[in-house]
Design brief:
Order of helices and strands: HHHEHE
Largest sheet: 2 strands, parallel
Strand content: 5-15%
Radius of gyration: 13 Å
Oligomer: single chain
Helix content: 40-55%
Length: 72
């Protein structure tokens, strides 16, 4: 089952106030108003953790320098 295979490799990272502040500042400074605060928080978290690839369906992650992982 998908969830049984997928959930063991998922890591949940909670952002703290400092990371939230950085994500908010990035969102406010961005020229692309279509990128959400949640996406900006993801970008900050991924950079903090050294994550370079994203399983995502929008090009915002790619435009931020992450490599998109295609669904099988």
């Amino acid at each position: 089952m998908f969830l049984d295979d997928f959930l063991p490799v998922v890591r949940i990272s909670w952002i703290d106030e400092s990371m939230h502040r950085v994500a908010t500042a990035a969102m406010l400074a961005s020229l692309n108003r279509g990128v959400s605060l949640v996406d900006h928080a993801s970008f900050v978290t991924m950079r903090e953790l050294g994550v370079q690839r994203a399983f995502a369906f929008d090009a915002d992650f790619e435009s931020q320098g992450f490599v998109l992982i295609a669904a099988p």
